[in-house]
Design brief:
The structure holds 2 protein chains of 2 kinds. By secondary structure, chain A is of the alpha+beta class. Chain A is 63% helix and 11% strand. Chain A has 2 domains: 195 residues, Multidrug efflux transporter AcrB transmembrane fold, CATH 1.20.1640.10; 79 residues, Alpha-Beta Plaits (2-Layer Sandwich). The longest helix of chain A is centred in the last third of the chain and has 33 residues. Helices cover 50% and strands 22% of the residues of chain B. Classes of the chains: A alpha+beta, B alpha+beta. Chain B: It is a multi-pass membrane protein.
Chain lengths: 310, 626
C-alpha cells in the first residue's frame, strides 16, 4: 500500500503568498476573539470551588439553584456535566466566605433538597493566590519552551530557521487559543499541557522539513531556494501525513473513550495537529524563504564526511 | 553490514527483560492488608520489633499471612482474603492496644500489591496511582509566615526588655513596629551600651541607629535574613512533623506529606472520603504544659495500685515507666519561644535548648529556685489527652529564660523532643489554599477511560502500520509495544505518580513514537526507489533517519522539561510521562526495531526484496534525480 505517488515536486512555494495571507487572516481572527471574548478559564486559574455530584436519578436544576442561593451562594452556577444525572456546581471565590468549608456546606445543602441524596464525585477548591501563580507559571513555561527551542534550532541549523519555526508554532498556539475563545470551551490545566505539547510537537514537524532542506541544499547544487524547499516538503509529505495520522488516531481514541476530563485535552491536540501540519509546511517554509535562506549558509568550507552508499 | 554485535543484542535483550520484570507488579492487583502505625506523637515505631510482634500475634491467633513488610513509619501484613484480614485486625488490635481507651498504635485496614515477594524485594512495585485514579483528598496548606514572624518579634520585644533590665541599660520604651523592634534611648552612651548588650547575647538581630527630629535616639532591630530563613524552615519542618503524627491517627494507607515551595505543604490522603474529619485533624492545635512531678515517697505505688492521690495524674514516660504529675500547671507553651536540638556545652552530650519569653523566664526562675533536685514534666496536650515528652531533673536555679535539657538522649531523640516541644508551642498557623476531593467511583472510571483510549488507539495504529508497511510495520509495532513496556517499567521503578493526564501523555507518546519508525520506513522506501540494494537501503534508511529523529525528539523534550519545571499537579503528571516516553521511544524505535530487522534480514547473503509495502518507482525522470 502506498498513498503518495508524486512524480514532480509540488510547487508549494509558488503559492507561498496565498498561504501566508490565509495564515495571517486566521491569526488575526484568533487574536481578535481572544481579545474580545477571552478564554473561559477553569477553576484552577480563576480560583473558586467546583463540586461534581452524581444522582441516582436525574435531578431538577432549579430547586438546587434555589437551595444554594438560600444557603448563601447566590452566584453558584449549576449545570449538567456529561449526563443528566451528574451535576457540576461552580462557586467563585468571595472574600466574605469561609473558603475551607465550602464543599461541606454545598454537600449539606444538596442533601437537604427534596429528592435523593447525591454522591460526591469530586471537589476542587483553589484559593485565589494559587490561581494567579498557575497562570504565571503557565506563561513562564510557554516562554521557556519558545526560548529553548529557538536556541536549539539556531545552534543546530541557523537563526532563520529558529525564527520561522517559532513564528509558525506560536501561530498554531494562538489559533488553538482562538478556537477555545471563540467556542468558549473550558481552558483547564490539562488543556494548557496539551497546548505546550503541541508546541513541541509542531516544532518537531518543522524540524523534519528543515532537515530535508539542509540535506537538499548540500546535495543538489543546481536548485534555487524555492525549488529546494518544494523538494524537501514533497519528499517528506508522505511521512508527515502518516505520522500525524497515527497521532490523530490516538487522540481520536481519547476523544471517544476518554470521557469529559480528557475531552478538551484531546480537542486542543486535534486542532494543534491539523494546524501543525499546515504551519510547518506552509508557514515555516515560506518564512525561511522570505528571511533569505541560501546554500552558502549550509555548505561549510570544510568537507563534510560523505556517507558511502554501497 | 546489517548485523549488531552480540553484546549489543544481549544488552537490548537485557533492557527488555528488565522492562518486563518491572512491569509485572502492575498486573497482580491488590490484596487486603492490615497496617500498624504509631498513634502517639511520643512513640517511635520500631519496624523490626513491631514486625516480630505482628508475627507472633498472628501465630497465636492461627491466622496465615502472605508476608509482612516494614517501612520507617509503618508495618503492613498481607492476607489472602478480607475474612483473614478482619480477623487479623482484631488479633493485632488486641495484641498492640491492650487498653482500647488509650491506644498506642493505629491498626488500620489497607490494600497492598499482590505481586510475589521476590518482586517486592527487588523494589519492583506497581505504579503509584494519583488521587484522580484512586480517589481521596488532596490539600495544599500555606503556613502563615507573617504571623509566625510577628509572634517571634513579640517574644523578642519581651526578651530585650529583660535584657536591658539585667544589664541596667536605661531606655525610653521598647515596642514592635511592623516587622521591626524599636528601642528608644535618651542619650547616645546608653544607646551604645544597649547595642553592645544585644550584640553580646544574640546574633539573630540586625541593629540600625535612627535619630528622629525629636530628642529620641532609636535603635531599630530587625531579624537577620539567616534568622528569618531558619525560622521559616523550622516552622515548615515542624508543621510537617505535626501533620505526620496527626494523619497517622486516620490510619491512611499511604499519606503523602511534602513541602512545596518555601511555605507550602501538600497533603494527599488516598482513599479518604471524610473530608470534614480530615480538615479537623489538620486544623487541630496542640498545647504544651510544664508541671511538677509528684515524688512523694509511696505516692506512685499508691497510684499504680489504683488510688491516684488528689491533685495528680498518672502518665507514662517515653521509656515506659509510670510518672505521677501534679495537675497544677507551672507554665504553658505560649511562654516557650523556641526549642532547638544541640549539644551540652560541657559534656558534649546531645541536648535540647529551650528559650522562654520574659514572663516565662521569671516564673521559671522562681520555680526552679524552690525545687532543685526535683523533676518537672513537659507534657504535650492534644485532644484533651496529655503525653509526657520529657521529665528532666532540675539541677540548679535557671534564670535568663534559657533552659537546657540533657542526659540519656541520643541525637535523634533530642531532635524529636525539640520538634515535639515546638509542635506544642509555636506551630505556625496554616490555611488550606487548595483542596481536591475525588470519589472512589470516579477514580475507577478514570482508569477505565485512560486504559481504553490507550488500548484502542494502540490497536488502530498497529493495524494501520501492518497494513501499510507489512513486515516492517509489524516490526515497528513490536518496537512500539516495547516502548510501552519500558515506559510502564520506568514509571513503576521511579514510583512517579500516575494521573489521568499522565495516561493521556502515555497515549500521546505512543502516537508520537511511531513517528520515528515512519521516518525510518519512508527513508528505506526512498532508498529503494532510488535503486539501492535492499541491504544498503536498510543501512542508509536507519542512518539517515537518525539525525532527524534526534532533532525532533530533542525539541519535544525541551517542551516536556519546561512543563516539568513549571508545572504542578496535573501538568506535572503529564510532563513526567511525556519526558520519559520520549527517552523510551528513542531507544525502542531505533535500537529495538533495528535489532529485529537485523535478525530478519541481516543474516542473508542475498535478498530479493524487502517486505515494506509497495515501493512505487517513477518510470521516467531518473535523470533529474541524479
Amino acid at each position: 500500500m502506498e498513498f503518495f505517488r508524486i512524480k514532480k515536486d509540488i510547487p508549494f512555494m509558488h503559492h507561498a503568498l496565498v498561504f501566508n495571507v490565509i495564515s495571517l487572516i486566521t491569526f488575526v481572527l484568533a487574536v481578535f476573539f481572544l481579545a474580545t471574548r477571552g478564554l473561559h478559564l477553569s477553576v484552577e486559574f480563576t480560583g473558586g470551588t467546583l463540586v461534581e455530584v452524581s444522582y441516582a436519578e436525574a435531578p431538577q436544576l432549579e430547586p438546587v439553584r434555589q437551595a444554594l442561593a438560600a444557603s448563601g451562594y447566590p452566584d453558584a452556577q449549576v449545570q449538567n456535566f456529561g449526563s443528566a444525572r451528574d451535576l457540576l456546581i461552580r462557586l467563585p471565590n468571595r472574600d466574605d466566605l469561609d473558603t475551607s468549608r465550602v464543599s461541606e456546606t454545598v454537600m449539606a445543602t444538596l442533601k437537604s433538597v427534596a429528592g435523593n441524596a447525591p454522591e460526591l464525585r469530586r471537589v476542587e477548591f483553589v484559593g485565589p493566590q494559587v490561581g494567579k501563580e498557575l497562570a504565571t507559571d503557565g506563561a513562564m513555561a510557554l516562554l521557556l519552551v519558545v526560548l529553548g527551542i529557538m536556541i536549539y534550532l539556531a545552534l543546530r541549523f541557523e537563526w532563520r530557521f529558529a525564527v520561522s519555526a517559532i513564528i509558525a508554532n506560536m501561530h498554531d498556539v494562538i489559533i488553538i487559543l482562538g478556537f477555545f475563545a471563540f467556542f468558549q470551551w473550558e481552558f483547564s490545566l490539562p488543556v494548557l499541557a496539551a497546548v505546550l505539547a503541541v508546541l513541541g510537537y509542531s516544532v518537531n514537524e518543522s524540524v523534519v522539513v528543515f532537515d530535508r532542506v539542509r540535506e537538499t541544499f548540500r546535495k543538489k547544487r543546481a536548485m534555487d531556494t524555492p525549488a529546494v524547499l518544494d523538494h524537501a516538503i514533497t519528499s517528506t509529505i508522505s511521512r508527515t501525513v502518516i505520522t500525524h495520522g497515527s497521532t490523530q488516531i490516538m487522540v481520536l481514541s481519547m476523544l471517544i473513550f476518554g470521557g469529559e476530563t480528557l475531552y478538551y485535552f484531546a480537542l486542543a491536540l486535534t486542532i494543534g495537529i491539523l494546524f501543525g501540519i499546515y504551519s510547518s509546511v506552509l508557514v515555516a517554509s515560506p518564512l525561511v524563504m522570505w528571511l533569505g535562506v541560501s546554500r552558502e549558509q549550509f555548505v561549510k568550507p570544510k568537507k563534510e564526511k560523505e556517507e558511502a552508499v554501497v | 553490514m546489517n548485523r549488531y554485535p552480540l553484546w549489543k543484542n544481549i544488552l537490548i535483550g537485557l533492557v527488555l527483560l528488565w522492562g518486563l520484570i518491572y512491569t509485572l507488579p502492575n498486573f497482580y492487583g491488590e490484596v487486603p492488608a492490615v497496617q500498624v502505625s504509631s498513634a502517639k506523637a511520643t512513640l517511635k515505631l520500631d519496624p523490626v520489633a513491631v514486625t516480630e510482634r505482628i508475627g507472633s500475634a498472628l501465630r497465636a491467633a492461627g491466622i496465615d499471612h502472605t508476608g509482612i513488610f516494614a517501612d520507617p513509619g509503618s508495618v503492613r501484613a498481607r492476607f489472602a482474603d478480607t475474612e483473614f484480614q478482619l480477623r487479623a485486625k482484631d488479633a493485632i488490635e488486641r495484641a498492640f492496644n491492650p487498653d482500647p481507651a488509650d491506644p498506642s498504635y493505629v491498626v488500620a485496614l489497607n490494600l497492598l500489591s499482590a505481586s510475589p515477594n521476590w518482586l517486592t524485594s527487588i523494589h519492583a512495585l506497581p505504579m503509584y496511582l494519583g488521587l484522580d485514579l484512586r480517589g481521596g483528598v488532596h490539600f495544599l496548606l500555606e503556613v502563615d509566615m507573617p504571623g509566625a514572624l510577628t509572634k517571634r518579634l513579640d517574644a523578642t520585644t519581651g526578651d530585650l526588655r529583660t535584657l536591658m533590665r539585667d544589664k541596667s541599660v536605661r531606655h525610653a520604651g521598647i515596642s514592635r513596629e511592623g516587622s521591626t523592634v524599636v528601642i528608644r534611648f535618651r542619650d547616645a552612651a546608653q544607646r551604645e551600651a544597649g547595642r553592645r548588650a544585644i550584640q553580646d547575647t544574640t546574633a539573630d538581630l540586625q541593629l540600625a541607629e535612627r535619630d528622629d527630629a525629636t530628642d529620641d535616639l532609636k535603635l531599630v532591630a530587625t531579624l537577620t535574613p539567616q534568622a528569618q530563613q531558619t525560622m521559616r524552615d523550622f516552622a515548615i519542618k515542624q508543621n510537617i512533623t505535626t501533620l505526620h503524627n496527626r494523619i497517622n491517627e486516620l490510619g491512611v494507607a499511604e499519606p503523602v506529606i511534602q513541602q512545596q515551595g518555601a511555605e507550602r505543604i501538600v497533603v494527599q490522603l488516598p482513599g479518604v472520603q471524610d473530608v470534614a474529619k480530615a480538615k479537623d485533624i489538620l486544623g487541630r492545635t496542640a498545647t504544651l504544659e510544664v508541671r511538677m512531678v509528684d515524688d512523694t515517697p509511696g505516692a506512685i505505688e499508691q497510684a499504680l495500685a489504683g488510688s491516684i492521690p488528689f491533685g495528680t495524674e498518672l502518665y507514662t514516660e517515653r521509656g515506659g515507666s509510670p510518672l505521677l504529675v501534679k495537675k497544677q500547671v507551672v507554665l504553658t507553651g505560649d511562654r516557650l519561644t523556641d526549642a532547638q536540638p544541640g549539644f551540652d556545652g560541657q559534656t558534649n552530650e546531645p541536648a535540647v535548648h529551650l528559650t522562654l519569653d520574659a514572663a516565662g523566664a521569671r516564673i521559671f526562675r522562681d520555680v526552679t529556685r524552690e525545687s532543685v533536685g526535683k523533676r518537672m514534666a513537659i507534657l504535650l496536650i492534644e485532644k484533651g489527652k496529655g503525653e509526657v515528652v520529657t521529665a528532666p531533673v532540675i539541677r540548679s536555679e535557671i534564670g535568663g529564660g534559657r533552659v537546657q535539657i540533657s542526659g540519656r538522649m541520643t541525637t535523634a531523640e533530642a531532635n524529636d523532643v525539640a520538634l515535639l516541644l515546638r509542635a506544642g508551642s509555636l506551630a505556625a498557623p496554616m490555611e488550606i489554599i487548595e483542596e481536591r476531593t475525588v470519589g472512589p467511583s470516579l477514580g475507577a472510571e478514570n482508569i477505565a477511560k485512560g486504559f481504553n483510549s490507550t488500548l484502542w488507539g494502540f490497536l488502530a495504529i498497529v493495524a494501520f502500520m501492518c497494513a501499510y508497511y507489512l513486515l516492517f510495520g509489524l516490526v515497528s509495532s513490536v518496537a512500539l509495544a516495547a516502548n510501552l513496556l519500558l515506559l510502564v517499567a520506568l514509571l513503576s521503578l521511579l514510583q512517579a505518580t500516575l494521573t489521568l493526564p499522565g495516561i493521556a501523555a502515555m497515549a500521546l507518546t505512543l502516537g508520537m513514537a511511531i513517528d520515528a519508525n515512519v521516518l525510518i520506513n519512508e527513508r528505506i522506501r526512498e532508498e529503494l526507489r532510488n535503486g539501492a540494494s535492499p541491504q544498503a537501503a536498510i543501512a542508509a534508511g536507519y542512518d539517515r533517519a537518525f539525525d532527524t529523529i534526534l532533532d525532533s525528539n530533542i525539541t519535544t523534550l525541551i517542551a516536556g522539561i519546561a512543563l516539568l519545571v513549571f508545572g504542578s499537579g496535573p501538568v506535572r503528571g503529564f510532563a513526567v510521562v511525556h519526558c520519559l516516553g520520549i527517552l523510551t521511544s528513542m531507544f525502542s524505535a531505533i535500537l529495538v526495531s533495528r535489532m529485529l530487522i537485523n535478525f530478519i534480514y541481516g543474516r542473508r547473503r542475498k535478498i530479493d526484496g524487502l517486505s515494506i509495502g509497495t515501493v512505487w518507482k517513477p518510470a521516467a525522470d531518473t535523470a533529474a534525480k541524479r
